[in-house]
């Protein structure tokens, strides 16, 4: 079973958690895209949902399928958010942001009563950190911010320098107008400590560690979908 087949498998499986009348957050990325397509099928079949999106990319996909995306500020608390991840670790600690949507994703996740992460089997790991940790940085005075990030990383025995994400020759700019720096951590032994240390830095808008946010993980694989809880 290919990774893409597993992504479809979990995107389709997540629809079982969606009930008529719910307010639902749509994640970003190739796995979440399968969920968006499955939601579009449900709506075509008559289900009524209020939808919000975690990125311009997802909004464009949803609208191309005929879905209506509401402004998050007009809908209050969400019932559910379904999104992909780059790594799913112990306790459903996650690395997200491979698609550079981590800030809007985290905002939507934190405004949802329940969050489901969907991923193919390769994303399920024993220790977070093989996937480079994305950090979203305010562009003004970014060099100073990156120096402060490097100092924090050293405190956590991470010696790799943050690397600016680029699109061709240009810096990658997020939907919110910020830069992304990726850190090849290797292994993150203290995710909670690292998350709060990074978040405390002026100039760091947010980072891709999603801790204590996922309620359920659906992991794809040849033997079917595994359902994990923290
Ligand atoms: O966090 C994300 C975007 O910011 C994505 O959910 C994550 O990168 C997984 O993407 P994919 O499903 O394409 O592997």
Concise synopsis of the structure shown:
This protein has 230 residues and is of the alpha/beta class.
Give an overview of the whole structure.
With 230 residues, the chain is an alpha/beta fold. It has two domains: 3-121 and 212-221, Rossmann fold (3-Layer(aba) Sandwich); 133-204, Alpha-Beta Plaits (2-Layer Sandwich), CATH 3.30.70. The protein is 30% helix and 22% strand. It contains six helices and 15 strands. It has a six-stranded mixed beta sheet, with helices on both faces. Strands 8-11-7-12 form a four-stranded antiparallel beta sheet, with helices on one face. Strand 9 and strand 10 form a beta hairpin. Helix 1 packs across helix 2. The longest helix is centred in the N-terminal third of the chain and has 15 residues, at 30-44. It binds ribulose-5-phosphate (5RP). The site of ribulose-5-phosphate has 18 residues, from helix 2 and helix 4.
